[in-house]
Amino acid sequence: MSASTLRIALVGNPNCGKTALFNLLTGGRQKVANYAGVTVERKEGRFMAPSGRLLQILDLPGTYSLEANSPDEQITRDICAGTYPGEAVPDLIVCVADATNLRLHLRFVLEVQRLGRPVVLALNMMDTARSRGIVIDVSELQRRLGLPVVETVAVKRGGAQALIEQVDGEVPAAAPRRPSDAASRADLHAQVRELLAATVTMPRVTAEIDDALDRWTLHPVFGLAILAVVMFLVFQAVYSLGKPMTDAIGDGFGWLGGHVAAWMPAGPLQSLVNDGLFGGLGTVLGFLPEILVLFLFIIVLEESGYLPRAAFLLDRLMLSVGLTGRSFIPLLSSFACAIPGIMGTRSITDPRDRLATILIAPLMTCSARLPVYALLIGAFIPTHYVFGVFNLQGIVLFALYLAGILGAMLVGWVMKHIRRDKSEHALMMELPSYRVPKLRDVAIGLYERGMIFLRRLTGVILGLTVLMWFLSTFPGAPEGATLPAIDYSFAGYIGRGLQYVFAPIGFNWEISLALIPAFAARETAVAALATVYLVGGESGGLGQALAGQIPLASALSLLVWFAYAPQCMSTLAIIKRETDSWRNVAISFGYMFVMAYTASFIVYQVTRALT
Amino acid sequence: MSAGLLLQYVVIALAVLASVWIVLRKLARKTTNRWLAAGSIHFNQPGRGALARALGRRLQPIEATGDCSDGCSTCGACGPKPPAAAHPGEPMPLEFRPRQ
Fold first, then answer.
1. Chain B partners within 8 Å of A339 (Cβ)
2. Antiparallel, parallel or unpaired: β A43-48 and A54-59
3. pLDDT digits (tens, 9 = 90+) for A134-193
4. Which residues, numbered 506 to 535 in chain A, qualify as contacts with chain B under a Cβ-Cβ cut-off of 8 Å?
5. How far apart are CA B71 and CA A293, in angstroms?
6. Are A260 and A273 in contact (CB under 8 A)?
7. DSSP state of A205
8. Lower CB density within 10 Å: C or N end of chain B?
9. Which of A343, A344, A342, A346 has the alpha carbon at shortest distance from A361?
10. Which CB contacts under 8 angstroms, 24+ apart, belong to A502-506?
11. Taking a C-beta distance cutoff of 8 angstroms, is the pair A478, A470 a contact?
């Protein structure tokens, strides 16, 4: 690194816009959302200042104090103090503060200043502050603090211009280092009050619109009803908006596959392209619209500031099953993928609560399960409308998500009764201002999710589909064979071996076989089933093939299996990484397998008895 | 076997080998990184030809630079623990303590 490279750390209270500022400076696309605890790791980016100086920017997890409690806060504390392993001390600390809530944020600024390092204060969200009539005397604040103060609007292009000019110049002098003890920390509050009185005029402490909305959304009865309606509508929309596009993509791929196959000479390569690539991969790709619709709603909810309210509402319920409201955000992240959810538990202070959340996070229905659900629901649940409005398929999808949540609550409750430590921890969570999501942020978020899906599709799912086609095709049927060729393939032998384990829950050998690649990536179960059925001579869509081949009891059993089934390999790897314990990996895998098998067994046997 | 059919089998063999590699990279990144490092050392030694050394450099495994916080398949960091993920002061391993 050149001598002129400046290392800058962005620090501040949670949800003050550090990551938005980081993205604006570095051109990065790190995840941002309107709630505390999105960033739980240090992130690094580079930026060339107008003078040609290279700036190395560190985005650090938000913290209310340098007296860290949770693992993410410890990272910020240690990097600022220069005690983080393998990390040099930053040359400059940019303390980001929410200009609409200086009463809370200035305390941390004063604490950082006492570290005795060069500090710049960035007053972020100045546009919102102005719109709420908040007046900040920036020059007076600068004079009283004794450090440079700049205004920023991290969500607007050019919104960090003043900060760039500031950090591109001379590094400001550091304030003298002062020890941090109980007396000096109490002194900080008095200092904040003095500063606010001298430099800030606020018509209201909170925004009027926030208070009006909170009267409804935080209401113990109406609030829960609103939450239930919001979640229900999300899943209705997944079907109503996503299904037509999914069908169109499926039809398009079928047409394209047919034309390409007709153009190729007959032989194994034609089968690979038609049955494996277009049939298997194309079926999975078809579910992209439904995944994007789900993420559209998740991103809008994240940006709006509603999610911390939902966490507040559910705190009592979560306490009753041994969790806290703080677990809500990581668990909600797990609806996208269990991996960021498990990483997000770093914001949970108590190790006991953190472990409990890690162990139940995989029960939240991740987006990789959506193609499996959508396929089976499309094949077995009729497109009826309940009360003429609600799509029955959407209701079943909602029920499956609910089954995952109820399963998680059950596991949490059992863990609460097994473990020794039963103390409860109060939830303290900052409720951010409501915000209308910006179209650009939503579009970028959707683009990122779409690209993640396509990377998986063209990477591991493609690889597994080719391998599944190979196993289903070779070796060919021997001379004089009476059964279909696929019965003599490697896949046939493996599937029939597995069927001994899965027959009691209604899985045929094709489904049993598809569970293996699903362990690497769940969507691959769809591609594997499509490939096996196409190689086996089925024509038409996979949904049709399934409806003709397996009974309703097996389909419902498979749906329930995927609601509780042991997680993918990557999730197990992240559990090992976050808990540093193979025992926890074994517990997680074991309890989910038993739970999935038991639930599927009950569903299969009961449905068979009733139909 | 006709030349056309032989060519088809060659293409299929290559596709299957590539698929095995992709899946191994996904499921056993640590192990495949070790293989790549060993291959890199083998080829990139003084006295080897320029082509072999170039291959050795190319085989050198790239350490994951990102994290998994945006979801699976976003970082390629499955398995190995990046040095930055050490949490000083945190009780590790996290343990499930049953009632006694």
1. 68-69, 71-72
2. antiparallel
3. 999 999 999 999 999 999 999 888 899 999 999 998 888 887 777 767 667 778 888 999
4. 520-521
5. 17
6. yes
7. S
8. C
9. A342
10. A504/A601, A504/A604, A505/A557, A505/A561, A505/A597, A505/A600, A505/A601, A505/A604, A506/A550, A506/A551, A506/A553, A506/A554, A506/A557, A506/A558, A506/A600, A506/A604, A506/A608
11. no
Q: CA nearest A436: which of A227, A223, A131, A221?
A: A131
The single residue listed with the structure tokens 């398949």 is B73
Say which residues have a Cβ less than 8 Å from residue B49's Cβ, sequence separation at least 6: none
Q: Which residue has the higher pLDDT, B90 or B79?
A: B90
Q: A524, A527, A513: which is closest to A569 by C-alpha?
A: A524
What distance in Å separates the CA atoms of residue A382 and residue A55, rounded to the nearest whole number?
58
Chain-centre distance for alpha carbon A290: 16
DSSP symbol at A200: E
Take residue A336 and report the two structure tokens written for it. 């996208």
Task: Tell me which DSSP letter residue A90 carries.
Answer: P
3-state SS class at A27: coil
R_g of chain A computed on alpha carbons: 27
Structure confidence by residue, pLDDT tens digits, A222-280: 999 999 999 888 888 887 888 888 888 888 888 888 888 888 888 899 989 988 888 88
Distance, in Å, from the CA atom of A85 to the CA atom of A78, rounded to the nearest integer, reads 9
Residue boundaries of the structural domains of chain B:
3-62
Contact A272 B23 (CB under 8 A): no
**What is the b/e burial string over A64-88, where b = at least 16 CB atoms within 10 angstroms of the residue's CB?**
bbbebebbbbbbbbbbbeeebeebe
Q: How confident is the model at residue A74 (pLDDT cuts 50, 70, 90)?
A: confident
Q: Which two tokens stand for residue A173?
A: 């002098």
Those of residues 21-50 in B touching chain A at CB distance below 8 A are 21-23, 26-27
Q: Which amino acid is at A45?
A: G
The pTM score is: 0.83
Note if the bond before B46 is cis, omega within 30 degrees.
Answer: no
- Select from A410, A421, A283 the least CA-distant residue to A353: A421
Which domains, from first to last, does chain A contain? 6-205 (3.40.50.300), 225-421+439-610 (no CATH)
Q: Do B23 and A520 touch (CB under 8 A)?
A: yes
Q: Which residues contact A105 (CB under 8 A, 6 or more apart)?
A: A12, A13, A16, A97, A98
Q: Which residues of A touch B21 (CB under 8 A)?
A: 463
